[in-house]
């Protein structure tokens, strides 16, 4: 991999040097962030700990990767100025794992365990028995009765419609 520094800019306020680079990698895969950091450190005579690759983008069908990196004066400066997810990508900082609070852990199981719907006038039975009873005896609500009546009407209407159609065809 050949690494070329396209633009170099000093930033004294943040105590860093900002670099735009181009890496040519023929017959090789896209270089890793770690490989780019080490190559930039060699070229700019700095330690690998102070080099932070912000982004690297490779074009489809080309053997080159363009990117933007920052070289700080010290590792402490890099840690104080740079965004945390970029530091994690460059392996300068460990990823923070969010720990769940004890209260949240207790709430989730309570939400997951919902009581089964109770049948009217029957004592609560174990879940397996309750499901079996629920399947055998299903109390029909008003809406269910109406839906059942409509379904029966449709069944009755279909045979009449089928009988009517052949008569029309015979007339033609």
Give a verbal description of the structure.
This protein is of the alpha+beta class and 172 residues long. It folds into two domains: 2-89, Alpha-Beta Plaits (2-Layer Sandwich), CATH 3.30.70.330; 138-171. Helices cover 44% and strands 21% of the residues. The chain has helices at residues 33-43, 75-81, 84-89, 102-112, 127-136, 142-171; strands spanning 2-11, 16-24, 51-58, 64-72. A four-stranded antiparallel β-sheet has the order 1-2-4-3. The radius of gyration is 36 Å and the shape is elongated. The protein starts with a strand and ends with a helix. The model has no long low-confidence stretch (mean pLDDT 78).
Measured between the Cα atoms of the first and last residue, the distance is 83 Å
- Spatial ordering of strands, largest sheet: 1-2-4-3
CATH class of the largest domain: Alpha Beta
Roughly how much helix do the residues carry, as a percent range? 40-55%
Approximate shape: elongated
Mean pLDDT: 78
CATH-defined superfamily of the largest domain: RRM (RNA recognition motif) domain
Strand residue percentage: 15-25%
Instruction: Provide the succession of SSEs.
Output: EEHEEHHHHH
Major sheet size, sense and barrel closure: 4 strands, antiparallel
